[in-house]
Design a protein that fits this description.
Blueprint: E1 5-8, H1 17-31, H2 38-44, H3 49-59, H4 68-85, H5 98-107, E2 111-114, H6 121-127, E3 136-137, H7 151-160, E4 167-171, H8 174-183, E5 186-190, E6 199-201, H9 209-224
Parallel strand pairs: 1-2, 1-4, 2-3, 4-5, 5-6
The structure holds 6-O-phosphono-alpha-D-glucopyranose (G6P) and magnesium ion.
EC number: 5.4.2.6
Catalytic activity: beta-D-glucose 1-phosphate = beta-D-glucose 6-phosphate
InterPro entries: B-phosphoglucomutase_hydrolase, Beta-PGM, Beta-PGM-like, HAD-like_sf, HAD-SF_hydro_IA, HAD_sf, PGP-like_dom2
């Protein structure tokens, strides 16, 4: 008994772009007099660009200082900085354990999906030379709600043609774990300080197929009792 698909978040799971998002936001926030730290960054993981900006402005008490045109300009500035920081991204930036896991999932005939709300996801997969490893990537431009809404994971399941209950989702963000749980998939959290994950691992280096298989079997035999 195996899952039919494993669906990955991108930033912070496949590669460490989560930190690059933070550096770009910190610069833009600094330019408008708002200081942000790693604590607020945790709340931006899995959250769309415009929603992230709204949270940053709120944290600095500046929601009302900018009209929608000015907000779009700030988001564009952040994206330009972020995209510039992606320039040197190459396969060396794939996080430990991920490349081997992707290969093994294909070997096991388990479908592989991507559920990232990043509009830069295609560019990042290309730079990591991982495009061919994903059977379906949910299109962030078609998604209305950021995580913790399950929309992006449900879109990935639909694109792969699998039932959420037959899938595992992997996330590094609290909003992402909640999105996976709400979709009806089993959730694997990677990192510290995460709650409600069905399985929690300290880093991606611990992720491998035998572990996911045991996890799947344990959960399903528990359900059968
Ligand atoms: C991911 C990241 C978020 C980021 C979002 C949008 O979910 O975890 O931090 O804000 O993607 O990314 P984008 O590349 O479209 O600005
Ligand atoms: Mg993430």
């Amino acid at each position: 008994m195996k899952p039919e698909a494993v669906i990955f978040d991108l930033d912070g799971v496949v590669t460490d772009t989560a930190h690059l998002h933070f550096l770009a936001w910190r610069q833009v926030a600094g330019e408008i007099g708002i200081e942000i730290d790693e604590r607020i960054n945790e709340q931006l993981k899995g959250i769309s660009r415009m929603d992230s900006l709204a949270r940053i402005l709120r944290s600095g008490g500046a929601e009302l200082r900018f009209d929608s045109q000015a907000k779009i300009k700030l988001a564009e500035r952040k994206n330009a900085l972020y995209v510039a920081s992606l320039q040197h991204l190459d396969p060396a930036a794939i996080l430990p354990g991920i490349a081997a896991l992707l290969e093994e999932l294909h070997h096991q005939h388990i479908r592989v999906g991507l559920a990232s709300v990043s509009l830069n996801a295609p560019r990042i997969l290309q730079a990591l030379r991982l495009k061919g490893q994903f059977d379906f990537c949910a299109d962030a431009s078609q998604i209305e709600h950021s995580k913790p809404d399950p929309e992006i994971f449900l879109a990935a399941c639909a694109g792969l043609g699998v039932e959420p209950a037959r899938c595992i989702g992997i996330e590094d963000a609290q909003a992402g774990i909640e999105a996976i749980n709400a979709s009806g998939m089993l959730s694997v959290g990677v990192g510290s300080g995460l709650e409600h994950a069905d399985l929690l691992l300290p880093t991606t280096a611990e992720l491998n197929w035998p572990l996911l298989q045991t996890f799947w079997l344990t959960k399903h035999s528990a359900h059968a009792v």
